[in-house]
Each structure stands twice: as structure tokens, then as C-alpha cells.
Amino acid sequence: MEDCDRRAFLHRRTNRIGVNAEAAAAADRFPAWSVPETKELLAIRAALDRRFSEMKQNRMLWISVAGKMKAKGFNRNDEQCKCKWKNLVTRYKGCETMDPKALKQQFPFYDDLHTIFTARMQKNWWIEPENRAKDSKRKAMTERLSSEDPKRGKRRREEDERSNLKEIMKGFVEREKEMERQWREAFRVREEERRLKEKEWRMKMEGLEREKMMTWIMWREKDDERREREEARALNTHAFIYALLSSFT
């Protein structure tokens, strides 16, 4: 029994160490968000909140957010922006029971998130009466058609079906155009990143080439100096030997 408890304790400690190491590695890999950076993320996210609520697959929107962040000078990818947004929303929801005085000190982005969610609720309040009005209008039209002549009612229903089909096709075309626009924006961002990386690589290669050339020039200069010293030493030796031989004769 004691052996089992000891093994369980060691296993928990190993897992805790592994989690801490992963957290430290993640912190080194992704730098912490600054206050201006977080403010800019909330401003961009607020501008796109309606599109986020309309689209279920919103990865392209997060790529667009990352592109706008990069245009502002903040180098963040779409996953980092999405993760930061979720963390901010979680903290905002946990602030309901906090003291209002200590709220802004512990969570300075509460007002920004409150503005976003308040605007979303107001929009939903406007949309709900409009939907109810449309439903009542559709119901009244259905009752009126049922009381009319069957042939006219059938013809009116066919016209309504064609009109609904046109609206559906129009909405489909608009969504396709929006997806294509988002894809082009993401492609432009990736192309810009590739161009910047290629430019940086070319500058590094040019620097290495210049350094190589300077090293070769320095080596040639030192080699020329060495040869000059050897030639001068050889001339001095030759002159010394000649003078020595001359003294014997």
C-alpha cells in the first residue's frame, strides 16, 4: 500500500513539473500581451463583432484580425488573437461578483468588453421585434391566401416560393463573395509575410557575402605583408653573405 501511494505521489509530481515546464516554454514562445496591444485587439474585434455572430466558421475572420494587428505593428497570429479573446471573455464573465472599485485595477479591459456585449444585446433587441413583425406578416398572408380562390392562392404561393428562392440565392452569393474577399485578404497577408521573410533572407545573405569578401581582402593584405617581409629578409641575408664573403677576399 505504501509503495502504491509513493508511486502515485511521484506520478503527480512528475505531471506537475511537466505542466510547469510546458507553461514556461509557452511563455518564452509567446510574449505577454501589452495593454495597448490588447486594446487594439478589442477595438478590431468590436468592429467585426457582427460578422463573427453571423458566421459559424470564423477562422478567416481571425486571420483578418491578425492581419489588422500586424498592420498596427503587433505581430500576432490568428490562434493567439483567438485565445486572448477567449481569456478576456472568461475574465469578463468572472467579474460579475467583484467589487466595482477593485474591478478596473484587477481587470482594466472590463469597460471595452462591456461596450461590445452591450452593443450586441441592443442589436438583438432590435432584431427580435423585426423578426416577430415578419412572422406576423407571413402568417396574415398565409391566412389571406387560404381564404382566396385556390388557383390564385396556388399561384401566389408559387410566386412567394420563387421570391424566397431568389432571396436565398442572393444571400448565398453574398456569402460566397464575402468568403472570397476574406480568402483574398488572408492570401495577401501570407504573401506579405513571405515577401518580408524573403527580403530579410536576402539582406542576411548580402551581409554574409560582404563579410566573406572583407575576410578575403584582409587575408590577401596579410599574405602580401608576409611575402614582403620574407623578401626583405632574403635580401638582408643575401647582402650579409655577400659582405661576409667580400671581407674574406
Short recap of the structure:
By secondary structure, this protein is mostly helical.
Folded structure, characterized:
By secondary structure, this protein is mainly α. The chain is 88% helix and 0% strand. The chain has eight helices and no strands. The chain has helices spanning 2-29, 35-47, 49-54, 59-71, 78-93, 100-106, 110-147, 150-248. The chain is elongated and about 145 Å long. The termini are far apart. The relative contact order is 0.05.
Distance between the termini: 109 Å
Number of strands: 0
Radius of gyration: 38 Å
Give the structural class.
Answer: mainly alpha
Which percent range describes the beta-strand content?
under 5%
Total DSSP helices = 8
N-to-C series of helices and strands: HHHHHHHH
Q: Please tell me the overall pLDDT.
A: 78
Unreliable residue stretches: 1-6, 8-28
Net shape: elongated
**Percent helix:** over 70%
Largest sheet: none
